[in-house]
Amino acid sequence: MLQNLSLLMRIHTRRQYAKVATQTKSKVREQNCSKPLINCRRTQFNLLQHERADAKFGTLPLCSKGWLHNKSKGDHFILNPTVSQEQLEAELQSLQQFLATGQIQLHPQLLENLQNELKITQLTAIQAQAMPIVDGRFHTLIAAETGCGKTLAYLLPVLNATLNNQTQETKERQFNTPSVLILTPGRELATQISQVATKLCVGTDLKVKALLGGNTKQLMLNPQFEEVDILVATLGAISKLVTTGIYHMDQVRHVVLDEADTLLDDSFTDKLTYFLRRFPFHRNHVQDADTVGTQLLLASATMPTNTREILQRVIDVETIREVVSPHLHHLMPHVTQKFLRMSKADRPGNLLVLAKQEMAKRRPLIVFSNKSATSDYVSIFLNNSGINCINLNGDMLMKIRLGRFEEFQRGICDVLSTTDVGSRGLDTTRARHVLNFDFPLHVSDYIHRCGRIGRVGSVEKSLVTNFISSRREIDVVQRIEHAARTGGLLPDVNANIKNIINKRIMAEMKEANVPLPQEEAF
C-alpha cells in the first residue's frame, strides 16, 4: 500500500514538474515571439533591438529604401510601442506629494479648482520641473513632447502669482488692461486655453477673456471695455487692438507664447518682435512702483533652429531658463505608428475602410491633410459615404469655423478632417486614431500631428496611420525610420517651416542661375 502511494506521489510530482516546465517554455516562447521594435511586411527588415545610435543616415538597411520604385506599392512597416501607457502613468507624481516639498505655495482656491474642476491629482515630470521656475518669475522656455501638460505647467504658477498680486495691490487697473497675456497662433487653441483658465479661476475675482481673430474690424468699430485679468489672444487680433488703443499693455506682468514654434516662424517673426518690444522684460525682477517688469514664458514641442537669434531682438536670451524634456524630438514610444505605401488613387478607398472600422468601434478619428482643399475633399467624401465628418481648416470663415473643434471634443461627431491648424496644441484627449491622409513634408509637423493622441489622461491604446504616396513623403519617412531604428533624435526638427521653404526655393533658383531678389539674397 505504501509502495503504491509512494509511486502515485512520484507520478504526481513528475506531472507537476512537467507542467511547470511547459509553462516556462511557453513564457520563453512568448518572450521570443514578442513584437519586434519594427514589424515589416518583408520580415528581413524586422528589428528586434535598436541599431547603434551613431549610425549615419544611409548606412542602415531601411524597409522604406525601395519605396521610390513603383512596385513597392502595398508595402508597409509598423513601429510598435516600447513603453506601455501604464509605465507612463507610473512616472506621474502625486500633487499632494509635490506640494509637500514646498517648492510652490498654491492659492487655496486655485488648488481646490485644480482638483475639483479639472480633476487633476497627479503631475507630469515636466510640470513638476517647470512650475517652481515659472513661480520664481524667471523667464522660462518649456520645451517638451506633445501631450505632457505644458499649458498647466505655466498657467498654474502664473495664475497663482496673479492672485497673490491682486491681494497686495491697491491700485485699480483700467478696463481692457490685463496683467497676463497669452499669445497663440490659432483661434481654437486660444479658446481651449481660456476655458482651462476660466475653470481654474472659479471662485476668484480674476476675469478671463479670449480674443480671437476674424472679427477684429467689428471690435475696432464697436469696442468692448471691461475688466480683464487674463487675456488669451491670437497675435493678429491683439496687435491691431493695441495699436488702436482699445487694449493697453502697460500693466502686463506675464507674457506667454504658447506653441512658440509657430509664433516664431518667419511668417510671424516681424509682427511678433515689434509687438514684444513694448514689454519691459529687462525689469522682470526689479521692484518699482512706476514700472511693472514682465516675465516671458515660451512653451512648445518643437522649436525653430534660429530661436535664440529671434528672441535676442527683444530679450537677453542668457536670462531665459530652459526646461527641456529628455523625450523632446523623439518618436512617441507608447503609440503604434503604421506606414503604408500606396498610390494616391488608392487613398480614398483605404480611408473609407479605416473610417468605417473606427466608427464601428466608436473610436474618434482625426484625418490630417496638407492643404485646405484636400481637407474639404476628405470631409465631403466621408459625409457622402455615410460617415459624419466635421471639417476644420484655416481658409474657413470664422463664423463657420467657430465651434467646430468643440463639436468633436463633445462627441457630437467622431471624425475630424483638418489641416495643421488642428495639430498645434489642441487637447484631443478623446481621439484614439490619427490618420495622415497626406503625409506631412516636415518632421516637426509629424511630431505635432502624432501628439493629438496618447496624451496625459488618455488610457486607451492609440494608433497613427500614415498613407505614403509621393517622392517627398518617402524622403521624410526614410529619415523617421532611421531614427526609429537607432532610437535617436528625429532629424531636421526645424519648426520654422517658412524659413525652410524659402531656403529651398532660393537654392533651386541658384541652381537654375536665376537672379535672387535683392531683399532676400545672401
From TrEMBL:
Pfam families (UniProt xref): DEAD, Helicase_C
Ranges of residues in domain Helicase ATP-binding: 131-321
Annotated keywords: ATP-binding, Helicase, Hydrolase, Nucleotide-binding
Helicase C-terminal domain ranges (all copies): 354-501
Keyword Glycoprotein: no
Gene Ontology CC entries for this record: cytoplasm
SUPFAM superfamilies (alphabetical): P-loop containing nucleoside triphosphate hydrolases
Origin superkingdom: Eukaryota
A GO term, aspect molecular function: ATP binding
Name of the featured protein: GH11243
